[in-house]
Amino acid sequence: MEIQREDCTYTASYCNENVWWLCDSVKKKFPEEIQYCYCVYISNEQRATPIWKQKASHQQDGQVVWDYHVIFLYQTSASGTLVYDLDTTLTFPCDLKQYYEEAIKDNKSLKPEYHRMFRVIPATEYLKIFASDRLHMLTPDGRWKAPPPPYPPIKTEECSDNLQEFISMEGNGHGVVLGLSECLNRFLNS
């Protein structure tokens, strides 16, 4: 499955929608591969999630503390697991082991409140159920925190916004919530 960064729909600070469009692109261009694809929300109870090697960073190591971040995983037996992160300065795609070592890093170096959790949702499910009205991107006085994408918000027939269900790292909701070691075991050792 060959996807180039420049061929992806991208808007800075809208990683949830960027990944939705990536899922949609894979479903259309590589329908036989969509079953190996996952959308992964990275967050924690405090919604303070450090990720390194990010384009939005103003630090030398590329660290950003996001309230949440979303990446796309493609898992095959032939190539292992690849990470597609449109916000990273690492390669696109990037091998999961390298992405872990350089962008996620081990929890041991972090205070417990910064430990990350991972909500893993099959791409086919994400395409069917994700919706965001983008209101979370408005300041209290109604200004955009970051310019919105030029296309309309993503919604389903039943819902115009369920973003918080994905960001929440409580066990209920869509997909499955995993700790860092569980996530690595699932995608590195399969």
UniProtKB/TrEMBL annotation:
GO terms for cellular component: cytosol; nucleus. Residues 10-186 form the Protein N-terminal glutamine amidohydrolase alpha beta roll domain. Keywords: Hydrolase. InterPro entries: N_Gln_amidohydro_ab_roll_sf, NTAQ1, Prot_N_Gln_amidohydro_ab_roll. It catalyses: N-terminal L-glutaminyl-[protein] + H2O = N-terminal L-glutamyl-[protein] + NH4(+). Its EC number is 3.5.1.122. One of its GO terms (molecular function) is protein-N-terminal asparagine amidohydrolase activity. It is an enzyme of class 3 (hydrolase). Pfam families: Nt_Gln_amidase (PF09764). It comes from the Eukaryota. Monomer. PANTHER family: PROTEIN N-TERMINAL GLUTAMINE AMIDOHYDROLASE. Mediates the side-chain deamidation of N-terminal glutamine residues to glutamate, an important step in N-end rule pathway of protein degradation. Conversion of the resulting N-terminal glutamine to glutamate renders the protein susceptible to arginylation, polyubiquitination and degradation as specified by the N-end rule. Does not act on substrates with internal or C-terminal glutamine and does not act on non-glutamine residues in any position. Belongs to the NTAQ1 family. This is Protein N-terminal glutamine amidohydrolase. It comes from Magallana gigas (Pacific oyster). The lineage of its organism: Eukaryota, Metazoa, Spiralia, Lophotrochozoa, Mollusca.
